[in-house]
Every structure is written in C-alpha cells, then in structure tokens.
Specification:
mainly alpha, three-stranded antiparallel β-sheet, two-stranded antiparallel sheet, globular, binds fe (ii) ion
Length: 478
C-alpha cells in the first residue's frame, strides 16, 4: 500500500523519507528494528502480545486523512518514519541565524547540542511505555484499554522518529545513542531514563490519566518548540508527532473528566460530599483528585528546568529550539533587548522581577504550558458546576512542591505562600496524595473487559473511537 502523501508500506520500515534510496541508512535501521521489537517484547504492555487491538496507524501525513483503523496485534504494528511535508523555502526563523535557509544537514558547531536535545526528547518516549506497562492488567474498560495501547504504540513510534534523526544525521555517535535508548530503563537504579519525571511509577489509571493530561502536554510544548527548529528534519519530524500527541492529551483530559462526572453523579444520588461515604461507594472524592493534580502538575513543572537558563538561551540564539508558536509572535525573534517577568523571593516574600527574555525561555515555555493546563481545568470545572456541586479544581502556585530551580530549596503552599519546614511537614498530606489516598485509589483498580462495561469509579465516554459505538469490542483476547 503506497499512499498519496507517499508513505511506503511495502517496505520493512514504512516511511515517507525514501529510505530505499539510502541503502546504508536502511540497513542501519533494519538492524535496529529487531532490537526495538525485543525491547517492546520485554518492556511494552504486559501480557498484550496476542491481543487484537483496534488501533490507528498513520498511513499519510495529510492532516485531513492520515489515520487508518483496524485490529492489530501490537508486535505487528507498523512503526515507521513519517515527516511532515517540507515547506519550500523554509528559513531559520529566530536567533542569530534568522533569515538564513533552514538547515538540511546538522551544522557542525551545533552537532553535539542537537544530538543531546534529540536524545533527551527520544528518551521520554520509551520511558512512558515502560512506566505504563502494567496498567493493562487493571483496565476500567475495553475502550480505555485500547486508548492506553494506542498511546503506547505511538510513543514507540515517537522513539522511531528520534532514532531516525540520530541514524540519518549523526553517524556513529547517533547509532550508539539509538542503542542506548533501548538500554536505559525507567526507574532503574543503575541505568535510569534521563529525566526524573520519567522514572516515577505510573501505578494506577488515575495517575495514567493525569500523566497523559499533564506530562504529555509538556511533550506537546517541547515538540512545538522543536518544531520551530532551524534544523529542518527535526522540525518536520516534530510537526508530525504533534498530530499524534493530540489524542494522548484527549485520553488524559477526558479520562479525568469522566472520573469527575462519575463522582458528581454519586454525590448527587446519595446527597453527600463526605469522603468516607464516597469512598465506601467506590468513587474517588474530588479533593483526592485535586491532590493528584497537585502532584503531577508540580513534578511536570520541573521538566521545563530552571527559570534562568543559559542553555535555553543558547538553544534559542543558535536557532535550535524556538518558543511556542515562534513564527506567530510579533517581535524581533532575537530577544536581544526584551525582558520577561520571573518570580523571585526576597526575604520571606514572593515578588516579580524582570530579567533578559533570552535567559528566561524555560520559564516562558512553562508559562505557556500552564495557561494551556488552566484552560483544561476550566473545562473540568464545568462538570461540578453543571451538577450543582460547589467544588472547583485549582492549579497550585508554580512554586509548590518543586525540585528544580528557584523554588527547590523553599516550601510554598498551593496558594503561593512561603511556609516553614514545620508547616510543610504538618500540611503536605492535605495537598499531595498520602499513602492512604494511593492505597484507596489502588484498591479500585480491577479489570473490566466486557464490551460496553465500565469500572464503577469512571463514567463511560460520550462517544467511541473512530465513530464506533462505546460498547464496541475495542480489544479482542486470543
Ligand atoms: Fe511522544
Ligand atoms: Fe504522548
């Protein structure tokens, strides 16, 4: 099957980069492919190898019709290499090289920096598959199980996307990095994944939905910044990854929305907001959801790095990583004189101060992400509002529970008040999931596999996948 937008499915590795025209690259990737499949077998979703899963596969890079849905056994999924179409005459759009033609090859002086950026992004993709590998055993429905697996196979494809760049543009070092991407393991003491948040466990479905809602959204912002890159193959790769990423965010946001809906329904039915009663009725009380939100929000905030960063400034000046929607912004795209507002601490007060915008690009991307998370929280809040439940979700202050940057040595309450160590020790259980909260959520995780049935703690979705009914048999067990 060869398609309009040029993806060749007759090849061992489906691609739209004319892989067959570059034999040594093709051989190198065909050599990596069995290693990848071995990794999937060991670290991919547990006990899933023989299931038939109703999955989408990219068959085109045309945004209007790029996906095909059918039953697939995941080890047979057609992972491939898909780049968004080249934009003729594309330029470097920011930094010191602004106005030059976009680079089709890696500029020698930026080689190691670019490789590091690509490896760091690439490492998150298999990491999340590893973090989520046990979840299939406690799925709340077939619909959700299918969504989990869709996210997993696409994170696998994102690894392919980054490995393609490493193989095609970074020679021997690139090939070694591609191997190392299959060797690190999430949470491993000796050879962990690169970023801390990707070494945390994803122990239950509430955590999974929070992760896809918040941490995949960090992925969206990182990919969007890399999609602006002057290195054109990276830009085109990231643009297509963003198309797939949208579904991951949907899985998270709608997953939590369905949990909120179910809890509100039970609250109204039984006319109670008492935690113990609601837990007894087998639903997750809203304050517990808020604590999970606080946890995932703060851990993911750290992924953007320190507020002030000379690395971020260099990536920008060098034309490697832009701002979110760089080309839509109406400034000089060099940021030589611009300023940006950062939080800071003076004595025991939080204040705002202005710094050169170039050094504050991590904070700026974090702020863009926070604004996006906030919009989704507003959508969630319509559910209790419509149900007549007074509870509203709130994002904690960005200094809350941070491990990286300005706030790392401090304790900040969700409302943004600096507090003492003693007060933190006394109160953090009100703000972050306690052992007891986690044990309760864990206790809800059963396994529901009858088509159209849903676990008690989550409402069914409003509609199915690819216009199929909600009760469709999304996964068939051999
Ligand atoms: Fe991804
Ligand atoms: Fe994702």
């Amino acid at each position: 099957m060869s398609t309009a937008a040029g993806i060749d499915y007759n090849e061992r590795i489906p691609n739209n980069v004319e892989l067959s025209g570059n034999k040594s690259l093709q051989r190198a990737l065909e050599h990596w492919q069995p290693e990848y499949l071995k990794w999937w077998g060991e670290m991919g979703p547990e006990k899933s190898q023989t299931m038939d899963v109703y999955l989408r596969t990219a068959v085109s890079v045309d945004p209007k019709g790029w996906a095909h849905y059918d039953y697939v056994k995941m080890p047979d999924y057609r992972w491939g290499i898909f780049l968004a179409p080249a934009e003729p005459g594309r330029k470097v759009n920011f930094g010191a090289h602004k106005g030059e033609d976009a680079w089709q090859e890696v500029p020698g002086e930026y080689r190691s920096t670019l490789r590091r950026i690509i490896v760091t992004q690439g490492d998150t993709e298999p990491a999340s598959v590893e973090q989520q590998r046990h979840l299939g055993l406690t799925c709340p429905s077939l619909y959700d199980l299918r969504n989990l697996f869709q996210v997993n196979v696409e994170e696998g494809r994102h690894l392919w996307a980054m490995v393609y760049l490493l193989h095609a543009y970074f020679g021997r070092d690139g090939r070694e990095e591609a191997e190392a991407l299959l060797e690190r393991r999430s949470g491993d003491a000796d050879n962990p994944r690169i970023l801390t948040a990707f070494n945390e466990k994803t122990p239950d479905w509430l955590s999974f939905f929070m992760f896809t809602f918040i941490t995949d959204r960090d992925g969206k912002y990182q990919l969007a910044a890399l999609a602006e890159s002057g290195f054109d193959p990276l830009s085109r790769t990231c643009r297509f990854m963003l198309t797939e990423e949208a579904h991951h965010l949907f899985v998270g946001e709608s997953g939590i929305a369905r949990i909120i809906q179910r809890t509100c329904d039970v609250m109204n039915q039984h006319k109670t907001d008492e935690r113990a009663k609601l837990r007894g009725l087998g639903v997750i009380d809203l304050p517990t959801l808020q604590k999970y939100l606080n946890f995932h929000f703060s851990v993911t905030s750290d992924l953007y790095g320190s507020e002030i960063s000379s690395n971020a400034a260099s990536f920008y000046t060098q034309g490697l990583k832009g701002r979110f929607e760089e080309t839509k912004l109406g400034d000089d795209h060099r940021l030589e004189a611009a300023e940006y507002e950062l939080p800071d601490v003076v004595e025991d007060r939080l204040i705002a101060r202005h710094v050169p915008a170039l050094t504050a690009l991590n904070e700026r991307l974090r702020d863009d992400w926070i604004a996006d998370v906030q919009k989704a929280i507003d959508r969630w809040n319509r559910i209790p509002e419509k149900s007549g439940v007074p509870f509203r979700f709130r994002l904690p202050h960005k200094g809350f529970h941070r491990r990286i940057g300005l706030f790392a040595p401090l304790h900040v309450s969700p409302e943004g008040k600096l507090i003492s160590e003693a007060e933190w020790m006394r109160r953090h259980k009100d703000w972050l999931p306690s052992e007891e909260d986690r044990a309760f959520v864990h206790s809800l995780m059963g396994r529901v596999t009858e088509p159209g049935k849903f676990a008690n703690w989550i409402a069914p979705p409003l509609s199915g996948i690819n216009k199929q009914p909600v009760g469709f048999e999304y996964v068939r067990f051999a």
